[in-house]
Design brief:
By secondary structure, the protein is α/β, with parallel strands linked by helices. Among the domains are: 164 residues, inorganic pyrophosphatase (n-terminal core); 108 residues, Diaminopimelate Epimerase, Chain A, domain 1, CATH 3.10.310. The radius of gyration is 22 Å and the shape is globular. It has a six-stranded mixed sheet with strand order 9-10-11-12-14-13. A five-stranded parallel sheet has the order 2-1-3-4-5, with helices on both faces. Strands 6-7-8 form a three-stranded antiparallel sheet. The chain is built from 18 helices and 14 strands. Helices cover 45% and strands 14% of the residues. It starts with 11 loop residues before the first helix and ends in a 7-residue tail after the last helix. Strand 11 and strand 12 form a beta hairpin.
Length: 462
Amino acid sequence: MPSGPEHFVTQPAYSTEFTRARALLLAHPGRWRVIYHYDGDGIASATSAVRMLLRLGYPVQSTPLIGVERARMDALLDATRGPVLVVDTGASWLDRFVRHASPVIILDHHKYPGVPDPPALPDHVALVNPLDWGVDGMSELCAATLTWLFSVFIDPTNWDNAPWGLSGAISDRQHVGGFKGLNAKLVEEARVRGLVEPFPGLPLFGASLSEALARSIDPFLRGLSGRPVECDRFLTALGVDPRRPIDSLDGTERARVGSAILARLVQQGTRPEFVEAFHAPRYRLPSLSIDAEELANLQNATGREGTPSEGIALALGDARAFARARAAEEAWRTGVLTGLRRIEEAGVNSLSALQWFESPEGPLAGTQAGLAMNYLLDPARPVVVFSPGEEVWKVSGRGTLWLVGRGLDLATAFREAADAVGGEGGGHRVASGATIPQSARDRFLDETNRRVLAQIPSSEAR
């Protein structure tokens, strides 16, 4: 059995970046502030980071960051005298970190603008980014699996951070089509160590089969999701009692229900990769007696419902936090379902290369956009969603890996369009965010549409 991650990647920058960050961490045993993005991947990353620091005996304070907010990051750094560990964000703000008086470690999988290679950094700043060692941070390693891997570099005991690595990767949709690259190696290592257990099952959650189907957002099923009466009819027609628990289905019944759901997905025009994802392996987490996708939903929900610290607390064994996370998950799921039903019934706005809509459920907007892109909208055009903030628009954009394969790069489009209107943006080629002035929405749409139109061949965008 492998004992550590030293040979997972052969590219020299891999061990160089980890070794530099490890040395910086171990040389400063005082209080650390962990700054993290408030989504499921960020919360899972912070979970592994906090567990790692506590095992070292270091005091730790964790602070979430919402969106692309340079001013907020500046304020946090100004208020922090000691060292800082930044996870799932920060690649766009390297210029700010070099001015911090204490050590800064950044574990991020997003593109940093302006330089093709890692920039030169002072001794007190360490950047670890899989893009520097030939690993795609969009599909092969998320922030949570990166932080899990880094924690193992610190101490192999931290292999037991597997639940948080896995849940973060699922939150970032890196399980669609099966785990790839370094993610796949890490998941296999966790399986060998008995930390995760693959099992067959339907990706539905609820007390009964009907409830789970009516609450389903991933997949979102036209005519069924959000409609309990229609779900009862659908299941009864299949010869399955809608009141039965999901776990009570035998293999034949599970296959019958699964096949009928797959047929609905194909009928509603869902792209093949998302249809196939319905059959993807499920992963049980023995240490928590929970499904990894369910854990991903719980942590993501705490962030989107404004209580990301609960997502970390449940990982530290706080039973009350687990209960509060379940309540947050119910509110989160209801809010996402509300937005998807609204899109299903009212549609969205169209430009030549984009689709766009507004969402009053601000923290849920990105999730709504991603799931709408997967199950409801024109697959040939990425979607942009706007949510109102204080004198700004919070913007999220979502595409698909199919569009990325045809040239889509939302990170570049959002960063350049936001710069053009006095805002700030960035992220991944498939999913990005921005913050722009409220008066600049139309211009931002024009700027982004023009760039996406140039990226994707005209035969693919309309």
